[in-house]
Design brief:
By secondary structure, the protein is mainly β. Helix content is 8%, strand content 37%.
C-alpha cells in the first residue's frame, strides 16, 4: 500500500506544494440567512435535489440562462432558514452524496462532455463549507501523478474523477469491513491523443484510490492492485 499524506504537523485539512489540504476556517460562513440571486431559478428536476441522511440539510440547485449558451448553476445547502452556497458556480447541475453521519458531502460536477470534477465539503459551525481549497479531484489526480507506477501517464481528454458507489454502506459491497464515515473511493479515467493506428481509443479506465477523511491521506489498498494494473493498460482496438 502506497500512502499519500501531508506532513504530520499540519492540521487535518491543509494543502502544501499543491498536494496536501488547505485550512478553510476563513471560509466558514456567518449564520445570517442568504440565498441565490433573484435571476437564478430553482430547478424543478427532482434528480438534482438531495437530502442528508439526518434530514437536516437539503441541496437545492439554481440555474440562470442568459442565452447564447451562457448557462450558470449554483448549488445551495439549506439548513432550516439558513442557506450556504456550495462554491464554485458551474456550467452544469451536479450530483451529491453525503456520508451516513451527514458530516461530509461530495459533489460530482460535470465540466464537459465525458469530464467530471469532485468537490468535498464538511460541516463547520453548523454549515457545509469547502474542505479543500482546490477541487477534491485535483488532489486525487496529484496523488495519481505522484506514484512511480502512474506518474508518467499523460491524459488529454475525457478526464474524469468519480466517487465510487458504496459510501452509504462503508463500501461493504466491495467485501471490506472499513469503519463507517471514514473512507471515500475515487475512480479516475481519461484518454490519450497519441496511440497506435490499430487502436481506436487508449487511456485510463477506472483506476481507483482511497481517501481517508480522518487523516486526509490517499492510498491504494492491495485489493485494487489487479484492476488498477488493467486500468493503466486500457484500450479499444480497431
Amino acid at each position: 500500500m502506497n500512502a499519500f499524506c501531508r506532513p504530520a504537523q499540519l492540521p487535518v485539512l491543509g494543502l502544501v506544494v499543491g498536494l496536501a489540504l488547505v485550512p478553510t476556517l476563513a471560509a466558514t460562513p456567518g449564520l445570517a440567512a442568504s440565498g441565490p440571486p433573484p435571476d437564478f431559478i430553482l430547478t424543478g428536476n427532482a434528480d438534482l435535489a438531495f437530502t442528508s441522511p439526518d434530514g437536516a440539510t437539503g441541496i437545492e440547485q439554481y440555474m440562470k440562462d442568459s442565452g447564447d449558451l451562457d448557462v450558470k448553476w449554483q448549488a445551495w445547502a439549506r439548513r432550516g432558514e439558513q442557506m450556504t452556497e456550495l462554491k464554485p458556480e458551474q456550467g452544469y447541475g451536479a450530483g451529491f452524496r453525503f456520508t451516513p453521519d451527514s458530516q461530509w458531502l461530495v459533489r460530482m460536477q460535470k465540466t464537459g462532455s465525458g469530464e467530471q470534477d469532485l468537490y468535498l465539503y464538511h460541516v463547520e459551525k453548523g454549515a457545509f463549507v469547502s474542505a479543500t481549497k482546490t477541487p477534491f479531484s485535483d488532489l486525487a489526480w496529484a496523488y495519481f501523478h505522484s506514484r512511480p507506477d502512474t506518474g508518467k501517464m499523460k491524459l488529454d481528454y475525457h478526464i474524469s474523477a468519480n466517487l465510487v458507489k458504496g459510501i452509504e454502506e462503508a463500501y461493504r459491497g466491495l467485501g471490506v469491513h472499513w469503519p463507517d464515515n471514514r473512507y471515500l473511493v475515487i475512480s479516475l479515467s481519461g484518454e490519450m491523443d497519441k496511440h497506435p493506428k490499430n487502436v481506436a481509443v487508449k487511456g485510463l479506465a477506472d483506476w481507483r484510490c482511497r481517501y481517508d477523511l480522518k487523516t486526509g491521506t490517499f492510498d491504494v489498498p492491495a485489493m485494487f492492485a489487479r484492476t488498477n494494473a488493467e486500468a493503466l493498460r486500457w484500450e479499444i482496438r480497431r
